[in-house]
Amino acid sequence: MNTPRALDDLRIIEWCDEKGAWAGKLLADMGAELIKIEPPGSGDATRQYGPFVDDSPHPERSLWFWNYNTGKKSITLDLTCEQGQTLFKELVKGADAVIESQSPGLAESLGIDYRQVTASNPRLIWLSMTSFGRHGARKDELATDLTLLAGGGIAWMNGYDDHTLPPVRGGGNQGYHTGCHYGVLSLLVALLHRDQTDEGQFIDVNFNAAINVTTEAGSFRWLVANQQVERQTGRHAGLAPSNPSQVQCADGRYVNLNFAARTPAMFKVIHDWLGELDLLHSFEATELLRAGMDRGPITAEELRTEPKVRDMLTAAREALIFIAKEIDAYDFFRYGQDHGLLVSIIYSPEEMIDDEHFQSRGMAVAVEHPELDRTITYPGSPYKLSKTPWHITRRPPLAGEDNQEVYEALGFSPDEIRSFTRDGVI
Asked: Has 163 been annotated as catalytic?
């Protein structure tokens, strides 16, 4: 694609471990020239993370690494030696931003901290993403995505109605992703500020804090009212149990129900659906459905104060459960979606990728991998912009693949670059 993208004019240096890689991917796929720094040799540690394509372990075949590094360039650089630190400072001179997720104090100890590099680039924006922030009593505490989700409160709020079972951690590094999203949004705001003032700035993202303020009402209720929400199967944690929302269909698969009906039109959809399936005479509360069809939209006040209104809503929900037990999950899902009902199907990842609904939204993207002479399917756009669309420009880089291009752009000759390689700097 040759269309412009939102961040086409930015150069960003990424010095991140697995905590911050998602932020770099979001920026790269929105058009930023994202230069990822990896240690010499086999590159970033996450290149060793499985699973691997075709189940063949190799640092250039890690699906984990691939997912987080589309659109990026890769250079290798030893930041522990003086020559490597000098090269880093040269890189930063022409950059709009640095994003890093290293341990607090590491950059400063190497002489490449924000305050130590901005003399040559006062417009630089430096985004630091750490488990507990760069300052404070917990800054050196070790953490993983699992412990951050537990300590931040997310894990407590996710799991099953049966509280003899432990909480459930959300899959896919949700803790790291949460902090990265706060980081990316903060970086974009800092760029807007720089456009107005010509000033760079330092951004300190605390993963634990980012997770804690993303618990919907959970943290708020605990901190303000000393109330504890409880986890529920497939629905929001709450102070009091809500109605179960997952229903098993005739084929053994599950669907999700949300608000069954609040308007006459929705009551009519459910009533007519029963009729189409020849189930009206089998369902005992059809009169309540008809009553919902013959009145105005249900308000929150009516739901709170009028028992008959609550009975109508209950009847609509029970009608959907009744229908679900009579038909297959996918048929339930498609009919509900086609008629404006808030229902969904519980898919495996493979089923989701193959579904025409997801495919029509561009959720499966084929990316060329010339080194394998094949294409690989990646997750698609996390958002849609009409004038500067998101897209993956190229497959994830091989370790050090862009050394020649990047270092030559800094003014180094091929002989100098070869000497850096011989000395183990890159």
From this structure: no
